[in-house]
Amino acid sequence: MSAEKDISLDEKRVYDGDERKATLYVASGVGCVAVDVVDERVGGFELAVRGTARDVAAGGGVVAVATDADVLVGRVGTDTEETHVGGFEETGHGEAVAVSVVGAGADGPAVLAAGPDGDLSRLVLVGQTDAGDADWADCGSIDADIRALSGDLCAAADGVYRVGTGLTHVGLDDARDVSAAGTPRAATAAGLYRLGNGWLDELAGEATVVASDGGDTGTEDADAPERAHAVVRDAFVALAAGEWVAYPEQPDGTVVGVAYDRTTYLVTAEGRVLAAADDGWRGQSLGVPDVAGVVAVGPN
Fold this sequence. Notes:
Order of helices and strands: EEEEEEEEEEEEEEEEEEEEEEEEEEEEE
Structural class: mainly beta
Protein name: HVO-0234-like beta-propeller domain-containing protein
CATH topology: Methylamine Dehydrogenase, Chain H
Number of strands: 29
Number of helices: 0
Domain HVO-0234-like beta-propeller: 8-295
Number of domains: 1
Low-confidence stretches: 7-15
InterPro entries: Beta-prop_HVO_0234 (IPR056505)
Pfam families: Beta-prop_HVO_0234
Radius of gyration: 18 Å
Organism: Haloarchaeobius litoreus
CATH class: Mainly Beta
Mean pLDDT: 89
Shape: globular
């Protein structure tokens, strides 16, 4: 049984002037959709990138979209309350199946991208350099299907890799998803694992999605613990007091991505955005097919 409720027209009126506003970027079969949200309220949405979007990532004021033609990069406005990208630039990467944004160091944020042939590349965005003027650097190639990127971790059919100037295989097999924020975790065909003194198993059974906010994202309580979620054996589960617990009211649809701001957001392959509320899940259909992932950009 699902506790999901549709969002009313009144609740869709999420105003730009609300300092709590965040924007979700949703990768779908028709492009990347920008969706305004305030807590559990979902507001207006628009198609920010057209084409087939395979993945989306954000960090350091940058949003990156992996498409069937290129990796597109946009910058969030400099106003502290701005969460929208003014426009996306081509980078010359070519087709990509996964993308991530790694920490903003002295040289600025960097984008990691995986091509359909297993090649991994890095694009460093120095200062305000246009993405189209930066050069992709080769990070190596994996002789297996790449399923996901998160930070400097890569999930592939033959396990998990760490991506630096080269590639290091760090264990496991048949990885479906990875989360680099906070405690690194991997979802595999055999179960859910966290990285400690080696990979430690947390839940047995096929795992397809894993995500965490690393304890850094958007909650009203600055001392709130890390939020982490996963899909294991087709059940949506959350980390609570060190234990993985299945939601008593499961979200409708196939969950393919999780994002965090002041609340937790899910997207389903069928094109719905779900927001966690006190009384269950609040749902809104985006009317787009083949959703593949989601990220949240909150106010700075």
